[in-house]
Write a structure and sequence with these properties.
Blueprint: H1 6-14, E1 37-38, H2 44-58, H3 62-65, H4 69-86, H5 89-101, E2 109-112, H6 116-126, E3 128-129, E4 132-136, E5 142-147, H7 152-155, E6 163-167, E7 170-171, H8 172-178, H9 190-201, E8 203-204, E9 209-215, E10 222-227, E11 229-230, H10 234-238, E12 253-258, E13 262-267, H11 284-297, E14 302-306, H12 315-322, E15 330-338, E16 345-350, E17 357-360, E18 364-366, E19 377-380, H13 388-397, E20 402-406, E21 416-422, E22 427-437, E23 458-459, H14 464-471, H15 476-486
Parallel strand pairs: 1-21, 13-14, 14-19, 19-20, 20-23
Antiparallel strand pairs: 2-22, 3-8, 3-11, 4-5, 5-6, 6-7, 6-9, 9-10, 12-13, 15-16, 15-18, 15-22, 16-17, 21-22
Length: 487
């Protein structure tokens, strides 16, 4: 989650809510960003019309993603209108979520002021689980990679490694294609769509029944009927890739020395811990630099940089972090912002601390540090690495001594956030109004046609063993990274 204003990012990561007065910048001299709008006093249909009008003008990637706003409005407005006539808040929320998901942008978000409405709908529609997690493994089979002991699947005889061929009377591939991911985060890439369909296929209303056709290893196929039980969202929590899923961490950078004298560094976000939250309030960049220097003093044989689940943060902080590894000055990005009055874009260099738009047509550069680390580096990534985290992955991927390791690539969402509306019912919808450009002034990292993000150099295969061990708490990616470093 990245943007040009520290207050904005801290609020969105921590709360995570859109503060409607935040995008206005009284210090801006020549560029004034879009101002979020309060539509909460309108009817549902009036607010939807206003949302489409504003978003179609100010969303940063309309052309890049070829989004047909008029067509989407024709498709979703009748659903909003029908929900309004029935007073159906669940149908209204689902329509809004599915509408925002049409952007396939992890920076296009919808949340309520308290989060209660989303939690209530998720509990209503997906509060039950069957005690199993599925993955599509190499070769294409959909396989059970985790079973909860004494859960519904376990009691029915389903075991880890079982191949699922049908779900509720439908071939498994068809069942997955039909699975709604409206309650999931936005999905920028094909990888993320597959992940969320697998997560939500095994969810249902508490008490709902589903038939499953499966075959345990070396056993003939069977069909059983399972009943969803209240599991406290266990499978959703187990497969949530965000480091913030359990709340704000107490320290943004942690480290230790592994066997073989390999330094391990975990970076959870590129922001400082907000005031009022317990923990280490040392600036995150200072923590990071001190950690790298300390590991250099210990003469570590290699480094592992872990940015899995990293929620992103500030652009300049990423470039400053990369100074710990670069020996030559290197271009990082141009920040290109939409001008609401003209619909065109302007490049501005911004101050992350104040939110000021400082220099026109200037980019952000990585300036080499005094004693950069130049030894072997393995970088752990996943699809929960979003926004400025993807800048870390991009920056490290350009080094000849770094190797990226992961099951999946990064999220594919790299724009500058801060625009949005407050809808009736308290739903806050936010989206980016700025693009990140490479040195040739082309959009970088953001997905198009469901392809984007930073890909791993070493893609660990998804198998019953790798996913099963991961779900049991073993760090398969770290072990793979250590083997790569040994080479």
């Amino acid at each position: 989650m990245r943007g040009s204003r520290l207050r904005q990012i801290s609020t969105m990561v921590v709360a995570p809510l859109l503060v409607l007065t935040m995008a206005s910048n009284s210090h801006a001299t020549e560029y004034v960003p879009p101002v979020p709008r309060d539509l909460s006093e309108m009817t549902w249909t009036q607010a939807f019309d206003a949302l489409v009008a504003k978003m179609s003008r100010e969303y940063a990637f309309t052309q890049w993603k070829d989004i047909r706003w008029e067509q989407l409005a024709r498709e979703y407005r009748p659903r909003i209108e029908a929900a309004q006539k029935r007073g159906d808040a669940t149908a209204y929320l689902l329509a809004l979520r599915e509408f925002t998901h049409e952007t396939h942008d992890g920076h296009v978000t919808i949340r309520s002021e308290t989060g209660e409405s989303e939690l209530a709908v998720r509990r209503e529609l997906a509060g039950g689980g069957f005690g199993l997690i599925l993955n599509r493994v190499a070769g294409g089979d959909v396989v059970v990679t985790w079973v909860q002991r004494r859960g519904p699947a376990w009691k029915a005889g389903i075991r880890r490694g079982a191949v699922v061929s049908a779900w509720n009377g439908t071939p498994i591939s068809s069942a997955l294609r039909r699975t709604s991911t409206a309650l999931a985060p936005n999905q920028p890439t094909k990888e993320r769509i597959r992940i969320e369909r697998l997560r939500f296929l095994v969810r249902a209303p508490i008490g709902a029944k589903r038939t499953i056709r499966f075959a345990n290893p070396q056993m003939p196929p069977r069909t059983v009927r399972l009943r969803a039980v209240d599991d406290g969202d266990k499978t959703l929590r187990m497969t949530d890739s965000s480091v913030f899923a359990k709340g704000m961490p107490k320290r943004m950078v942690t480290s230790r020395v592994l066997s073989g004298n390999v330094g391990y560094v975990r970076v959870k976000a590129e922001i400082d811990l907000p005031a009022g939250y317990p923990g280490d309030h040392t600036p995150t960049l200072k923590q990071f630099r001190a950690t790298i220097r300390e590991l250099q003093k210990k003469r570590v044989s290699a480094l592992v940089i872990d940015i899995r689940g990293n929620a992103g943060g500030l652009d300049q902080m990423v470039a400053d972090m990369m100074a710990s590894f670069y020996t030559k000055r290197s271009f990082y990005e141009y920040q290109s912002y939409l001008v609401p009055e003209t619909g065109r874009f302007q490049i501005w260099k911004t101050d992350d601390q104040t939110g000021d738009y400082l220099d026109r047509n200037q980019g952000i550069w990585i300036e080499p540090g005094k004693r950069p680390y130049t030894g072997p580096i393995a970088v752990l990534i996943d699809n929960g690495c979003i926004s400025s985290c993807e800048g870390v992955a991009m920056g490290l991927s350009r080094l000849p001594n770094a190797t990226l390791v992961g099951f999946y690539g990064t999220n594919g969402s790299f724009g500058m956030v801060g625009d949005g509306v407050l809808m009736p019912g308290g739903q806050q919808i936010g989206w980016p109004f700025g693009q990140s450009l490479d040195r040739r002034k082309r959009i970088q990292i953001d997905s198009r046609d469901l392809v984007g993000g930073v890909a791993p150099d070493v893609r660990v295969p998804i198998t019953v063993r790798t996913m099963g061990r991961t779900l049991q708490g073993h760090d398969v990616l770290l072990r793979t990274a250590l083997r790569e470093l040994e080479k």
